[in-house]
UniProtKB/TrEMBL annotation:
Protein name: Thyrotropin receptor
Domain of life: Eukaryota
Membrane topology: Multi-pass membrane protein
InterPro entries the record matches: GPCR_Rhodpsn, GPCR_Rhodpsn_7TM, Gphrmn_rcpt_fam, LRR_5, LRR_dom_sf, TSH_rcpt
Length: 697
């Protein structure tokens, strides 16, 4: 080998030795080999150390195991740190044994460490800090033999992504005094029953365990505390039912799956809550009001006027006798916590304008009205569809449009039914169901139904008006009348449009989860705001189109030289009243909705519920009755349908004979046959006109 190559090899070997010495140095009180390190009473006494060693720091250990007895009966050592090793696989049982001066153990950044054997930490009476972080440990370490006598013990387990659960009695035997557990960023998916049994817990921090989805109901059974519980940024779906009575601070931020709270009776001492959803703060707000009402009975009722809205004393305009009574009651009956003994309660996020602390429908009278409108809309529109679709009469353009209108209004009735059922199911506890409802499939279905129904209804009413206008303005040109295939194409476009605008919030353009009634009120992004504004503008454009069409119709009717057919004229006049009535019902909704979409709301969400229940579905209630049910033609079709089932034979025969006589009334008059197709519309429009005039008076 050439001399210069030998020289280079020697340099590299020397550099390797220097690097090794820098990364792994043997403490003076220990004995080290290539396979193990021993730091015990014997090595300590035999060492040549000139000063007392209180801290051992072992980094980059090159061997696989920290063997039994490695750290045994050391004296004066208060801290041992093992870190930055790519070789260690196991810490064997009794590796840390009977070190009565040891206060802190830190095991950090050993990614290849897979196992900490049972009894690895034994007889450590002064230990007050144990940290096991960023390791590859696969099972929760055994800590039952630590037997610390310190007044406060801090346990830290973090970034151990292969530990998937905390078993029963996992912390029993660590200490009988208060403990602070910082169990963050691990691979936990479950905390099992009695996991914290036998402990006194001050704080339990479980945040950032992204896969933690279940804490067993009895996980805290047998434990005292905790006073602070933090489950932020986890996948928890529910908190344990038992063991939370001592919790004073609860943190559950960024925990979207946690949509329900445990019974409030299990959180009696709670003073501060940081939650994910505003509706959960309503639970505690309502409970405090309820508790105040329970204590304000009999002679104590008058004293509650001394309490302000935060349940703190307000001595403004208070007589000396009232103040004396209040102080005497609190002295003799401290458990009542009447005003001055009550503790302030903090909760965030606070309920906002879109999610106030109230039930889904909010008011009792709205519940009654909603059920009435729902029942009428469902029965009325279902009856119209059944009768019209089962009628032997030819499916004319008018019948086809009426069927589409009835279907749209039936969907609105289904939306109201969903809202009414959820309100009944969650009454007085909506806060516990709010997020499950608003972020779940049910609210998306309800929102889809209402937007689809309202847009299809508006489109159908506009189509009816355009069809009437076209028919009357082209009365003498029968070849230009709309054929069924034309109307089918128009309604197909209407269905496509309605489906599109109803699906957009499902795919992120606005959303249905903003408010409890599942309407697309989210205008946070430009796309969402544009969607809401465009929808309202289109509805207003439809209204203006209807207005323009009927202005044209009336101008045509008033021309003496305009030879319109009598049936079409009569239909136009009556239908004008109906269409304008429908759109007048929408006017207040459009007005307030546009102002809200422009970020200038004029009413609150609570007030908008009144508007939406009283005006929004009124078309679905009235349309089947005004357009169909109150007509003579509907009665005829209904009796014909019932006669086929064996009922109302006489009434059906009467209408059958009357229909035949109407056809043969004047065989020389060709208009009688041509106008027969309009008799259905003519008769029911006439009766509807009477119904509206009576309602107006």
């Amino acid at each position: 080998m050439p001399p210069h190559m030998l020289w280079l090899l020697a340099v590299l070997v020397s550099a390797g030795d220097v690097c090794h010495c820098r990364t792994y140095s043997c403490p003076a009180i220990c004995q080290c080999t290539t396979e193990r390190v021993s730091c015990n009473r014997h090595t300590q006494e035999n060492s040549q150390a000139t000063s007392v060693t209180s801290k051992l720091r072992l980094t980059h250990l090159p061997f696989r195991d920290v063997q039994s007895g490695t750290f045994k009966k050391l004296i004066n050592v208060t801290r041992i740190e093992i870190s930055q090793s790519d070789s260690i696989r196991t810490i064997q049982g009794k590796a840390f044994l009977s070190i009565h001066s040891l206060e802190e153990i830190s095991i950090q950044n050993i990614n290849q460490l897979m196992a900490i054997e049972n009894g690895a930490f034994t007889d450590l009476p002064k230990l007050r800090y144990l940290s096991i972080c960023n390791t590859g440990v696969r099972h929760f370490p055994d800590l039952s033999t630590i037997s610390s006598m310190e007044l406060f013990f801090f346990l830290e387990l973090g970034d151990n992504m292969r530990i998937n659960s905390i078993p029963a009695n996992a912390f029993q035997g660590i200490s009988k005094e208060d403990m602070y557990m910082n169990l963050v960023r691990n691979g936990f998916t479950e905390i099992k029953s009695h996991a914290f049994n036998g402990t006194r817990l001050d704080k339990v921090i479980l945040k950032d365990n992204m896969h933690l989805s279940k804490i067993h109901n009895a996980a805290f059974e047998g434990a005292v505390g905790p006073a602070v519980l933090d489950v932020s940024s986890t996948a928890l779906q529910a908190l344990p039912t038992w063991g939370l009575t001592a919790v004073k601070v609860l943190k559950a931020r960024s925990t979207p799956a946690l949509k329900t709270l445990p019974p409030l009776e299990n959180l009696l001492d709670l003073q501060e809550a940081e939650l994910t959803y505003p509706s959960h703060c309503c639970a505690f707000h309502n409970r405090r009001l309820h508790n105040r009402e329970k204590t304000t009975i009999g002679q104590f009722k008058n004293l509650t006027k001394l309490c302000n809205k935060d349940n703190q004393p307000d001595f403004t305009d208070v007589s000396g006798q009232e103040l004396s009574d209040l102080q005497e009651i609190n002295f003799h009956y401290p458990d009542m916590e009447l005003c001055i003994n009550s503790r302030p309660f903090k909760c965030s996020p606070k309920p906002d304008a879109f999610n106030p602390c109230e039930d889904l429908l909010g008011y009792d009278f709205l519940r009654c009205i909603t059920w009435v409108i729902t029942a009428s809309a469902l029965m009325g529109n279902l009856a119209v569809l059944v009768v019209l679709l089962s009628s032997p009469q030819k499916m004319t353009v008018s019948r086809f449009l009426m069927c589409n209108l009835a279907f749209a209004d039936l969907c609105m009735g289904l939306y109201l039914l969903l809202i009414a059922l959820v309100d009944h199911w969650s009454r007085r506890e909506y806060y516990n169901h709010a997020m499950a409802w608003q972020t779940g499939t049910g609210c998306s279905v309800a929102g889809f139904l209402t937007v689809f129904a309202s847009e299809l209804s508006v489109y159908t009413l506009t189509t009816i008006t355009l069809e009437r206008w076209h028919t009357i303005t082209n009365a003498m040109q029968t070849d230009r009348r709309l054929r069924p295939r034309h109307v089918v194409a128009m309604m197909a476009a209407g269905w496509g449009f309605s489906l599109l605008v109803a699906l957009l919030p499902v795919f992120g353009v606005s959303n249905y989860s903003k408010v409890s009634i599942c309407l697309p009120m989210d205008i946070e992004t430009p796309a969402s705001q544009g969607y809401v504004v465009a929808l309202l503008v289109l509805n207003m454009a439809a209204f203006l189109t209807v207005c323009a069409c009927y202005v044209g119709i009336y101008l045509s009717v008033r021309k003496p030289n305009m030879a319109t057919r009598h049936g079409d004229t009569r239909i136009a006049k009556r239908m004008a009243v109906l269409i304008f009535t429908d759109f007048l019902c929408m006017a207040p909704i459009s007005f307030f909705a546009i102002s809200a979409a422009m970020r200038m709301p004029l009413i609150t969400v609570s007030q908008s519920k009144i508007l939406l229940v009283l005006f929004y579905p009124i078309n679905s209630l009235c349309n089947p009755f005004l357009y169909t049910i109150f007509t003579r033609a509907f009665r005829r079709d209904m009796y014909m349908l019932l006669s086929r089932c064996g009922y109302c034979q006489m009434q059906a025969e009467f209408y059958r004979l009357q229909g035949l006589s109407g056809v043969a009334l004047d065989p020389r008059n060709k208009r009688s046959r041509k106008s027969h197709s309009n008799q259905f519309q003519g008769y029911h429009i006439k009766l509807r006109g009477c119904f509206i005039s009576k309602g107006a008076t």
